Amino acid sequence: MSFISKKDLKLVKRDPKGHKGDNGRVLVIGGSRDYVGALVLAGLAALRCGVDWVTVAAPSKVGWAVSALSADLVVKKYKGEEFNVSQAKDVLKFSSGFDAVLIGNGIGIKSKSFVKKFVKKNKKLMVIDADGIKPVGLNDVDNVIITPHLKELEMFLENSKIDEKIIKKITNKKLPINKKSIIIRNILKKLNKKIVVLLKGPVDAVISGDRIKLNMTGNAGMTKAGTGDVLAGLCLGYLGQTGDLFQSAVNAAYISGVIGDILLKKKKGFSYIASDMVEEIENIKKKLN
Q: Which CATH number is 133's domain given?
């Protein structure tokens, strides 16, 4: 177990002779009547970290709002104010044309049946965030990065039928993050699956069945709404370019935190917001290369 540093990053080098799509096409599925901005933040973060093409799949009115907010995101619109389970088959078919998929941002808990069906049937590399995490468990996922905070992780583990005593130990706020991470790693180790948990907190933990990396970048300003959507978008962008679950999560956690630290100094306090983070991604990439 070690802390992530700059030397642990593996950033994608673009082929100067490449064509549109060579650096990844990704899909963001989410949005609901009350949550539109989450999709835009996640989608633009994926674009800013280098992926060539981002499509957003959203309920119709949400989709029109996304189109109005950003001309850079392609939008696939579905009927209704929220996704429903009957739409899962169509969205699964549509997702087959992408290198990686992110689901959950702004999707709302009313779409839980849709989420569960999509996640269980999906064959693409996937990032699951926010309300996308709450209806699913370990039996439902593979080839995935999940990005929970502690409460979302508790729900995920309950859905996974993990022993209640183990869940209480993991969610005990007094237990140090390194010990929590070892317990989670041991759970993942027993599975014949590729699952990476990026547990968000004052110290982030990137955990798979055989590796743990802790991340110290970031600050208290990153509790603001939307910062998690940026993090999920970074995971998606790197995953779409590389196909590497663990490395994508490492890159995203470290870079997201560094951006927060830079903005803390630029804004001279905690006045920075999630959209500031999206704008800073390109600047930090230049510094890290």
A: 3.40.1190.20
How many domains would you assign to the chain? 1
Query: Which pTM does this prediction carry?
Result: 0.96
Residue 98 lies in a domain: yes
User: Domain of 60?
Assistant: 21-288
Q: What per-residue confidence (pLDDT) applies to 219?
A: 96
With cut-offs at 50, 70 and 90, classify the pLDDT of residue 21.
Answer: confident
Find out whether 128 and 145 touch, Cβ atoms under 8 Å: yes
Residue 5 in any domain: the answer is no
Instruction: Give residue-wise pLDDT tens across range 107-157.
Output: 999 999 999 999 999 999 999 999 999 999 999 999 999 999 999 999 999
- Buried b / exposed e along 217-229 (16+ C-beta atoms within 10 A): bbeebbebebbbb
- Write out pLDDT tens, residues 208-227: 999 999 999 999 999 999 99
Evaluate whether residue 14 is within a structural domain. no
| 4 within some domain | no
What phi and psi values does residue 64 have, to the nearest 5 degrees? -65, -35
